[in-house]
Amino acid sequence: MDAPTLAVWKFASCDGCQLTLLDCEDDLLMLAGRIKIAHFLEASSATVAGPYDVSLVEGSVTTPSDVERVKRIRAQSKALVAIGACATAGGIQALRNFADVDEFRSVVYARPDYIQTLARSEPISTYVPVDYELRGCPIDRGQLLELLGALLAGRRPQLPVHSVCFECKARGTPCLLVAAGTPCLGPVTQAGCGAICPAYGRGCYGCFGPVAATDPRALLAKLRALGMSADDLRRAFRTFNAAAPALAAIEETSEP
Amino acid sequence: MTHREDRLLTVGSLSRVEGEGAMHVRVDGGQVTDVRLEIYEPPRFFEALLRGRRYTEPPDITARICGICPVAYQMSACQAIEDACGVRVDGPLNDLRRLLYCGEWISSHALHIYLLHAPDFLGYPDAIALARDARDIVERGLALKKLGNDLMTVVGGRAIHPVNVRVGGFYRVPTRTALAPIAARLRLALDDAMATVAWVAGFDIPDFDHDHELLALVEPGTYAIERGVPHTDGGLVFPVRAFEQHIIEEQVPHSTALHARLAGRGRYLTGPTARYALNHRWLSPLARQAASVAGLGTRCRNPFQSIVVRAVELVHAIEEALRIVTEYEPPPRPFIDVPSQDGVGFGATEAPRGTLFHRYSVGADGLIRSARIVPPTSQNQAAVEDDLRRFVTGRLDLDTERLTHACEQAIRNYDPCISCATHFLDLVVERT
């Protein structure tokens, strides 16, 4: 049987999530032996035409031509995996969704008429069905290997659906919110990073996006009690996953 | 091979570069009439979205401009914000910043040398194909890259978008014990880095020279990384705060990146070869020795030799990291306080691809009023286009496929980071 084919695609993003594939240093050559890398422009000038068994899609959709491109990629891909906060929640560039994009364009460019852009930065799932999502800004290398391994084995990947709090407990990190009074988004953020920030004495800043089925009220009360204003809360939630649908619900709850 | 006098060379999607772009070269009557490095990476409007954010946020937010050099963004951002607030971070905290930055240089240079650029010289489409014939060499490159990533992980929490950097310093500083295993690995890696220099110095380097003015930061006594004063090899020196008076950015229709020029002087080049020309006397002992064995001389005007300079900088970054780790004593506090104040601040550091400038205006309320970021790739765009024009002119006897490939290689000499500049490179060589 031929090795399954893998394609890597980029939309508006920083390249960090696809770089995570190259960062699998110890496993990269082993992986390359089991998967045929058919399209990965950051790494190879050789490309093979579709269809592809697996497409990893990085970045958010922000231009009219990218809307068409993501549909073509979907049509050529058996499994489509959105990787990272841009592809799953619009990325930091989704802050434009709360502003006037024409005004944004004129701040950065002297000739805004040269620049083609949509008013909103949207996750891949806005335009096409997505089979799996890897969260994070950036994604976690271990999760990427788990996903590729599972797809190779024909089983469902095991991806966390719980909050960062569980990872702090597993790691033995004392709760920053309780013990140090440090604002932390861990209780409403999806696990997967390994709770790095709290281990460094810093509150979670939510780069893996909102965890499903969470009730943020207790956390919001605690953050307000720690002195965060409504503006502070809005800024805290509107960062790298600004267009995540679940975030809108949290923000609604946070309005006084 | 007909129509050699009139051709259109195009590469629709440049590969082995960071981000999305294309190249377009038109040849009419044996003359190169148009060269465009087309950057079509969609704009992300960082300078606009930073407005109204807290002055403590730019290190995290601007890191997301580039997954390959996030530390560069964090360091330029911290320096600019601290400047606006009238604070300077020195001593062991600055050493730790330099150590983190060395990790990024090691990782980024190993990535570019082994995975992106070397395959060009050896006739492979990628490093995975190269590994089939020379697995040991590719594994050596991956091990060097991993060392850089692990160094960033120890100091910064993770390699891509480190979490431990804050305005004023760090959230937590490592203990000597935590750094000890890295010290041992850095020592061993020196041999691999020296072998890297010897390997790339043996490549078949095309004969080609440029005459761009070279710009890099200079910090006498040390090879500039995390701070310095802008200098050019044409004798121009100016403080970081005067950057925008000397560097003029222009918008061109074919690119979402802005083109930069030196005011009254024209195109210029930043990056490893510029740093080498202006800073080589401060290279670490082994790096100096490696440069000399590789026959680099005191400056390097052949862009195809940039891979050798990157390898020499790899030796330097490892030796410098080893020096910092060996002398390291944890600072008494992980950060110094940086209270916000009304002001404008400027920062510039040497990203792996060249000088990265940030400017922020901060209000008394601690919110950012305006931001300006000038990444290395947009500064180099005019020089890359000039190289392509001259390079193609001298090689019109090549068939289109070989010429196009040579052009792509010429672009990769600069390790363009189009995500930083804004978009991905698509090479289009027009031969009508």
UniProtKB/TrEMBL annotation, chain A:
<dbReference type="InterPro" id="IPR006137">
    <property type="entry name" value="NADH_UbQ_OxRdtase-like_20kDa"/>
</dbReference>
<protein>
    <submittedName>
        <fullName>Oxidoreductase</fullName>
    </submittedName>
</protein>
<dbReference type="InterPro" id="IPR051349">
    <property type="entry name" value="Hydrogenase_assoc-protein"/>
</dbReference>
<keyword id="KW-0560">Oxidoreductase</keyword>
<dbReference type="InterPro" id="IPR037024">
    <property type="entry name" value="NiFe_Hase_small_N_sf"/>
</dbReference>
<feature type="domain" description="NADH:ubiquinone oxidoreductase-like 20kDa subunit">
    <location>
        <begin position="14"/>
        <end position="150"/>
    </location>
</feature>
<dbReference type="Pfam" id="PF01058">
    <property type="entry name" value="Oxidored_q6"/>
</dbReference>
From TrEMBL, chain B:
<dbReference type="Pfam" id="PF00374">
    <property type="entry name" value="NiFeSe_Hases"/>
</dbReference>
<dbReference type="InterPro" id="IPR029014">
    <property type="entry name" value="NiFe-Hase_large"/>
</dbReference>
<keyword id="KW-0560">Oxidoreductase</keyword>
<protein>
    <submittedName>
        <fullName>Ni/Fe hydrogenase subunit alpha</fullName>
    </submittedName>
</protein>
<dbReference type="InterPro" id="IPR001501">
    <property type="entry name" value="Ni-dep_hyd_lsu"/>
</dbReference>
<dbReference type="InterPro" id="IPR018194">
    <property type="entry name" value="Ni-dep_hyd_lsu_Ni_BS"/>
</dbReference>
